[in-house]
Amino acid sequence: MITILHNNRCGKSRAALQFLESKGLQFEVRNYLENPLSEVEIEDLLSKLDTSIHNIIRKNEDLWKENFSETTYSDSGLVSILANYPKLLQRPIVIKDNKAIIAREIEKLEKFL
């Protein structure tokens, strides 16, 4: 099963969703702002992405700059921040089986699928 962690206000996320639809693939859309990931789900996602928590946080967001940028956090602290402030999650993320990618480029998404 394919899942897209989607934010409809994001152009890259809308483009990835449109690409999945154009391929006729069956997939699930999870609006992670309305249905945030739990800490356990974030840890699982990191494993599927094979990356560090630092790579999935949007550090250019004002929310990050104003509230979190001045402090150093442990990885578990960052997971907790992301669970509580889902707006900080990189997007879109596409999950397929036990792998996932940050699908900002359609070419990368196409290769992944």
Offer a concise description of the structure.
This protein is α+β, with helices and mostly antiparallel strands and 113 residues long. It has helices at 11-22, 39-49, 62-67, 75-84, 106-112; strands at 2-6, 27-31, 93-96, 99-102.
Plain-language structure description:
The chain has 113 residues and is α+β, with helices and mostly antiparallel strands. It has a single domain, classed as 3-Layer(aba) Sandwich (Glutaredoxin). β1 (2-6), α1 (11-22) and β2 (27-31) form a beta-alpha-beta unit. The model has no long low-confidence stretch (mean pLDDT 96). The protein starts with a strand and ends with a helix. It has helices at 11-22, 39-49, 62-67, 75-84, 106-112, and strands at residues 2-6, 27-31, 93-96, 99-102. The chain is built from five helices and four strands. Strands 2-1-3-4 form a four-stranded mixed β-sheet, sandwiched between helices. The chain is 41% helix and 16% strand. It comes from bioreactor metagenome. InterPro entries: Arsenate_reductase-like, Thioredoxin-like_sf. This is Arsenate reductase.
